[in-house]
Amino acid sequence: MAPSNKKKGAVDEALAGATEKVLKEIAKLYDSGLNEGSGKAGAGTVGLRSIADSSQLQMVMRKPRKKVSIMIVGNHSAGKSSFINWYIGEQIQKTGVAIETRGFTFVTSGKKRETLTGDATMRYFDFLSGFTKFEGIIPNLFTEISTSKEKNFLCVDFIDTPGLVDGDMQYPFDVQEAILWMAEHVDLILVFFDPIGQATCKRTMQVVEKLNNGPHLEKIHYFMSKADAVEKEHDRQRVLIQITQNLATRIRNSHAFNLPTFYLPRDDGEASAIPNAIEEVCKEIDKSINMTVQKNLRLLKEDCERILARCDVVQAEDKVKKARNLKVTLQGLALMSGAWVAGALLLGLLAARVMPAVCRVADHMCQATHIQTLVRISPAVQEHFALVGGVLLVVMVVLLVASKLTWKTAPVFNKKDLKKLDEHRAVTKAIMSEESDLYQKYFDTLSHAER
């Protein structure tokens, strides 16, 4: 290998390692937060997701993925699997496969070589939980785990989609809708057109059109693969024109449309006179990785700001609730006191009504002044007892009901909750500080790579 290529390889490897580290660090901050020994104020073992999900905040928060998801779409024999094999430097995907191969295959990096089938793939990639709505999809899901460290593969998850063909081909699931669903969950979409196959088949064009009608415009890039399969320049130009004309009516911003052509470098290393834009494919992947790192760092900062804002909101709401609780408690006590007074008066009326009879039986009990008073007012009470007693009973019941309806307090934070809220703030601020450090380290790595 030439010295310049060795140097470039070393730089690429260092950059890929730094990028992978940043993406993993971001995911770690969501899962487990900062280490105790990090030296950051408020450092601990609680991550942003746990803080957001706490009983004090009750927020919905998803952590960003550790890797960039790249979906490759194209007709059968468009070179999707061959490109993946070339990129990772390993023959992990079968090529030249019969059309009957109709599933989704995820190609990701790991510590050991493994193959996962449907259910295991669903567990490995948690964002696939909604993918089960497509009947027949699970038996056609696969994951190939490779130990390769080629290029930026450590930061990438490739998704090899079913080859699209026309005719009587029947897929075991709705292939077009499945691809569109997957497009919602990936960072980059590469569309490959085969110059000697069914590049402009109806299914491929329908998928392209639907992708363009969705919110995916910025992450779709088109390439004509296997350019070396057409040796004559005028034949390649004819195929390019044909593909471009077919796409023109189906894509937005067609005036800025670009269709680079590429092919895989030959095993013998022999140079070819045919222009090869394979580095442009790699650059799009690198750009997507860089954008994802920046997006994840930005999301980390925004989520920290959301948590801090939520802490302020819930604490302010708690103060309002406590003030309202005090108000309704005082109102409830006032109404309850009124009910007690009405009840006491009603008991007094009952005592005045029955006291003469009691005194006739036990005269010695009626010598007290307050008892004599009850005996004296007893005739008046007897005369108006039904009216006055009824009114007092109604008033007492009404006040009791009003007290019960009014005296409803909202749940508020106790001292333990408020302490936990302060801890959430401290940890979140420490994570925000770490986000700034990660940003600086990442851009330092980029600037060194450019020198």
TrEMBL record:
Q: Name one GO molecular function term.
A: ribosomal small subunit binding
Mind telling me which InterPro entries this protein's record contains? Dynamin_N, GTPase_Era-like, P-loop_NTPase
Keywords recorded for this protein, A-Z? Membrane, Transmembrane, Transmembrane helix
Protein known as: Dynamin N-terminal domain-containing protein
From the record, give the transmembrane residue ranges.
328-352, 385-407
Taking every annotated instance into account, which residue ranges of this chain make up the domain Dynamin N-terminal? 70-194
Q: Which Gene3D superfamilies match?
A: P-loop containing nucleotide triphosphate hydrolases (3.40.50.300)
GO biological process per UniProt:
ribosomal small subunit assembly
Which Pfam family is one of this chain's hits?
A: Dynamin_N
